[in-house]
Amino acid sequence: PLTVIEAIKSRLGIGSLLKDTLYFDLFNLSFDKSEDIISNITFDSIDIHEKLSKCKALIIGTGGLGSPIAFILAKSGLGTIGLVDFDHVEISNLNRQVLHSTSRIGMLKVESAKQTLNNLYPDVNILIYPETFSSGNSLELVNSFDIVIDGLDNFPTRYLLNDSCYFADKTLIEAGVLSFFGQTTTIVPNNTACLRCIFPESTIPTHIPSCSETGVLGPVPGLIGTIEAIQAIKYILGIGLSTAGRFLMYNALEASFTVIDVERNNLCALCGKNPEIKDIKDYTFVCEDKKS
Question: What pTM value is reported for the model?
């Protein structure tokens, strides 16, 4: 995705193009434009296969983020992948949602994704849930898996997912994309900052432009989804420096990665010292039309 993003920027004459070689080491969350920082890493392949094959990961959304996440996890040999999405494939999705094709326009996205993944990796168990992720099913879904990965595009449902994982005590790989920008973090309940610590509900503008109004550069969710999948694999295996307690931001226009430390907020409405949120509830949607 990085090379595609740079090619698009060059063709459109926007942003700042990479002039130096960019070295990135997702194992150690290091990004540098001038110094070779690639690590020499060796692992026990048998142990890796066993841990991945026994893991069950739930992906909420099979669009621009969820597609690359599911593809990479399946390719890596994850044992079971659950896919949640109520939406159908549309032609406008195909510039970024790599599990779908023109022949599947009108098909449920989870069915299209399952077909692609089963054709490529028949040994991976793909479970599909063609339904809206809501307060009515969130805890049941989340509790059935070992780790949860966010492929959503709106804050209301991301809050719901954050809260559900907190109450279920499940690690969440969280992310968001909009326009030329992406971000991701790993949330470990009662250990790291949750989404509400980083983005308190009161700080979110009452009107956030919808996906159809703002759009997203197609390869950006591909890049962020790839990073999410890598962070999930690292977390499952217990290796490398994770994004737990860290917030990774990508600016496609400036070709820059920034990683900052984030701490739990004692005033957080969910995980603070005096929490106000005691149960799961739905929130008003900001971007209801399509997933990223």
Answer: 0.90
